[in-house]
């Protein structure tokens, strides 16, 4: 694929973009000149950048609009790499809006601006729709000068134009990174990935509770550790709280998938709350083990991360008997007298957890172990699926939120295989600079990450050039969990 070309309509815009170190073509002002320039350009990635006019009221001078589609008289051109570029611009400290850019053939006046804004477009320009090349990487960045209430012929025109040029110059590193990231690549998809049965059950419980009881339905802590899931449930009427005392007496409360302590259950009962338990059954299994071991007088070593909500809930089953063991160093020094047993947080890295357990077994030969591994099937499957491809790729992208333990463990799994890996909450979190040298990328997602986020990453990468996708399937997951009677 040819190197990317940066297209700037005006001489002053071209001057602002020269620091990008890319070929900058001055297209000329207006659709006719832009079309003539487009006809002369070779096939390859094109990035149109310059000053634009804002249509939406919230788009202000100096803001940057990144087009996710360009609408022109001949139709709509989709821009799938737009979220990647928008994310890069935001990380530069710019105020960025992602949405449609409308192509017109004349300078838009104030009265017409209000009419065009009703279309949902964020900005308007006269060149982008004529410069788009079908089937080629394409992007549009417009730094806003004139806006609603501040047209081109206005006392503030000069200062607003300067604000637009400053933002355009500030955007150069992101434009350079987009250009460097364009090109063909291979994508290897690790499977299984994304939602597990426990996560699907927890989300379904909140959905059903909302349908049955109406909004608001309260949820203690995040139902699962994913910002997108939480945001979508909030839109439907779920209210997330940190503690039970924040819930009005008599209201409906859902316990999150990570489980809670018996003390939390007592607090909810004392407030007369209608409780629906969305604790993952595999977490419940660990709670039962702790009660069984502690009930017979054992000291229970809980292998896990002390700050994680699942561990907090598990410790609460027998706080005087449970000792959290976070790493091998702790396993080598922890002390106990009498009978001992161990359990595990369900979302740990399998090999790391086994290393800790082996140290404990060596130090305490009579150590009782769970009848079946505590690390859940979904965590194990996702780690093994990723391990199978990690050494075949240049970079691993793990889709998941920063507070997701199982997602963070996937990053560690790839790194232990010698492959750099990054955790991204969504496509806009991907650093374009990491993609420039990554011709072969592995992609997976934590058990709490929605599948559509993976699809968006694939679409974003396709917007940078041709992508060949291969699926590496380790196993099929057919496990399902029953729902609590309160939502049936």
From TrEMBL:
Pathway: Isoprenoid biosynthesis; dimethylallyl diphosphate biosynthesis; dimethylallyl diphosphate from (2E)-4-hydroxy-3-methylbutenyl diphosphate: step 1/1; Isoprenoid biosynthesis; isopentenyl diphosphate biosynthesis via DXP pathway; isopentenyl diphosphate from 1-deoxy-D-xylulose 5-phosphate: step 6/6. It is an enzyme of class 1 (oxidoreductase). Keywords: 4Fe-4S, Iron, Iron-sulfur, Isoprene biosynthesis, Metal-binding, Oxidoreductase. Binds 1 [4Fe-4S] cluster per subunit. Transmembrane segments: none annotated. [4Fe-4S] cluster binds at residues 196, 280, 376. The active site is at 310 (proton donor). InterPro entries: LytB/IspH, Nucleoside_phosphorylase_d, Nucleoside_phosphorylase_sf. It comes from the Bacteria. GO terms for molecular function: 4 iron, 4 sulfur cluster binding; 4-hydroxy-3-methylbut-2-enyl diphosphate reductase activity; metal ion binding. PANTHER family: 4-HYDROXY-3-METHYLBUT-2-ENYL DIPHOSPHATE REDUCTASE. Catalyzes the conversion of 1-hydroxy-2-methyl-2-(E)-butenyl 4-diphosphate (HMBPP) into a mixture of isopentenyl diphosphate (IPP) and dimethylallyl diphosphate (DMAPP). Acts in the terminal step of the DOXP/MEP pathway for isoprenoid precursor biosynthesis. This is 4-hydroxy-3-methylbut-2-enyl diphosphate reductase. It comes from Amycolatopsis carbonis. The lineage of its organism: Bacteria, Bacillati, Actinomycetota, Actinomycetes, Pseudonocardiales. The gene is ispH.
